[in-house]
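Narrative of activities, Objective 1.

The group set out to show that a structural description can be obtained from nothing but a protein's sequence at a throughput compatible with the screening campaign. Below is one input-output pair from the validation batch, recorded exactly as produced.
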Amino acid sequence: MRPEFLPGNRVTLLERGGEFFPTLLDAIAGARIEVRLETYIFADDDTGRKVADALVAAARRGVVVRVLVDGFGARNFPAGLGPRLAAAGAQFQVFRPEVGGLRLRRNRLRRLHRKTAVIDGRLAFVGGINVLADVDGGTGPEPRHDYAVLIEGPLVARVHSAAVHLWRLVRWASLRRRPAFEPVAPSPGTPGGVEAALALRDNFRHRRDIEAAYLAALAAARSRVVIANAYFLPGRRFRRRLVEAARRGVAVTLLVQGRVEYLLQHFATQALYGALLGEGIRIFEYRRSFLHAKVAVVDGWWATVGSSNIDPFSLLLAREANVVVRDGAFAATLQASLEKAMAEGAEEIRAEDWKKAAWPVRLARWLAYGLVRLLVGFSGYGGREYRE
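Output recorded for this entry:
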């Protein structure tokens, strides 16, 4: 299904946790009716405790607070921060709790990876930023490079509806009884002139929505494509669209993870560099800190910000949420941020240098790529597209 664009929104780009968390905390502090939050990770660190404190304060003043976390990414939440929220009257649920950690099951890869929040049906946040500290012992002095958006306008109701739907599904799965009816969020009016859509990915009606939005934008691209993605391992169709765009003269630039966070994804991504560089696609590795962004800009007017990586785990298995924006001013803001990130924190990978890699490194890349393909085959999703 193609995402439906709604006019009349105001969409504000939030860069890194330094902009995102103060804005989120202010919104929760101003809540009077309801706060809904979905996240993959809800860490028990300084940032997580600040968000938990804000949610506890909201619940104590009578606001309905509902938090949904992933059973793997936030597996410590039910025994950590969760009881504090529950004691204050807030509700939390766990999406696919981890049981039997050593058991290998195909559905273990189906995670809640989206990061959204809705405040009073008036404000919505969508992006890639988890509830955890920007800087910890593993990232050094620089915060993770990531993005989210603050939405005001008609699109807020779509984000709210998606959150209510998933909350009800999880409640049904855990309690085996139908949850009480919940009213649709109040209409937030039309505070801006931005046209935007919510693109979801699930295993039912929205299996390919986010990927389809990317593919349509790439097919229509005429001048420039900039994609920043932490875990970049596209299937054949996506790679073909990138190559086709480059061959018709579109300047295609990829900003990917330069630091090794997850060894398998890092080397599997690098296995694709040679073919992409050979088509004239420019590749930059971000090394100033960990790159966690999942964003893109096409032709200076189409942009997306969200939780979905361009890899089989996001595009075939996880629940994801992206906002797609058709607005020149927003796209220009995001593109300027990406250009600054590439200029100040990334290193361009050049074809002539790439060919000089030692054979053990080349072997590691293709072994990692093969292992990812094996995992995708084990999952039963994706067909041949991600296994060739």
